[in-house]
Design goal:
- The complex is a heterodimer of chains A (about 220) and B (about 70).
- Chain A contains nine helices and seven strands.
- Chain A is α/β, with parallel strands linked by helices and about 220 residues long.
- Chain A has a single domain, classed as Thiamin diphosphate (ThDP)-binding fold, Pyr/PP domains (Rossmann fold, 3-Layer(aba) Sandwich), CATH 3.40.50.
- In chain A, strands 2-1-3-4-6-5-7 form a seven-stranded mixed sheet, sandwiched between helices.
- In chain B, strands 1-4 form a two-stranded antiparallel ribbon. A two-stranded antiparallel sheet of chain B has the order 2-3.
- Chain B has one domain: Alpha-Beta Plaits.
- Chain B is about 15% helix and about 20% strand.
- Classes of the chains: A alpha/beta (about 220), B alpha+beta (about 70).
- At the A-B interface, helix 7 and helix 9 of A face helix 1 and helix 2 of B.
């Protein structure tokens, strides 16, 4: 969907993606544009540098929840705070996928992972972090939305939000992010169809969908 | 004339397109394996297709193309 939006906006020759560690690291296999690899969590920092050197180029980061909400929290919060004119695609699947299904800050209470075999304990680990709501409170952010991939209408809304986020960057309004609730059937121990159902049953009630900020 | 094309070697047999289709156009093969060793989706009822593109939007591997 990101590639479709880049093509529809006609900005392919001036767009670059930054992929940090995580399942996102393979993004360069799927985009026929310049792609850069960043250290774990540091994609917004690399994107900041690129955007400031090439202000007429369009930069997006493609980050998972273990990357953005845990290891790279400082980078994403500060990049949004500075109002960097970049777009972040935040893939939230409530688990560390690439490293083998460990608990992430976004793992739901009670959810079983390899590092929380009895389910996430609220007393011990706190409640999952809602990044979209948090970043929407920062003055430097211009467009913050949360979408999901579980149904066809939600897929259409997700693409619209990604397009809006890139348009926000093109208009130089500030930082833009789309959080996308995504399935990880492998590490959830579910079939692809069950994983899509679980997004609707378990994730969306805790992570409400919608646009949290638009300027 | 609506035409559904499935690039079967891109398919990993997740079945999300079958689930997304409102008209029962698609099904996972039960006899034929693709190059990757999965049972790929195949068109079983082409005439029922209304070109809503739900399957193509859903496919994580962009393996479905709809022409109309």
């Amino acid at each position: 969907m990101v590639a479709e939006v880049i093509e529809e906006l006609g900005i392919r020759e001036k767009t670059a993606g930054i992929a940090p560690v995580g399942c996102a690291v393979f993004a360069y296999n799927y985009f026929d544009i310049d792609m850069y690899e960043a250290a774990h969590g540091r994609a917004p920092a690399v994107a900041t540098g690129y955007k400031r050197v090439q202000p007429d180029h369009y930069i997006f980061t493609y980050q998972g929840d273990g990357d953005l909400a845990s290891i790279g929290t400082a980078e994403i919060v500060q990049a949004a705070h500075r109002g960097e004119k970049i777009t972040t695609i935040f893939i939230n699947n409530a688990i560390y996928g690439m490293t083998g299904g460990q608990m992430a800050p976004t793992t739901l209470v009670g959810q079983k992972t390899t590092t929380s075999p009895l389910g996430r304990d609220k007393e011990h680990c706190g409640e999952p972090i809602r990044m979209a709501e948090m970043l929407a409170t920062i003055s430097g952010s211009a467009f913050i939305a949360r979408c999901a991939l579980n149904t066809t209408p939600n897929l259409i809304k997700t693409k619209q939000a990604i397009k809006k986020a890139f348009e926000t960057q093109i208009a130089r309004k500030g930082f833009s992010m789309v959080e996308i609730l995504s399935p990880c059937p492998t590490n959830w121990g579910k079939s692809p169809a069950e994983a899509m159902d679980w997004i609707g049953e378990a994730m969306i009630p805790y992570y409400p969908l919608g646009v949290f900020k638009e300027v | 004339m609506i035409k559904v094309t499935i690039y079967e070697d891109w398919c990993k047999g997740c079945g999300l397109c079958v689930r997304a289709c409102p008209k029962g156009v698609l099904a996972l093969s039960t006899s034929h394996l693709n190059k990757k060793g999965y049972y790929p989706a195949e068109v079983v009822n082409q005439d029922a297709c209304i070109a809503c593109t739900a399957c193509a939007r859903t496919c994580p591997d962009v393996a479905i193309e709809i022409e109309k």
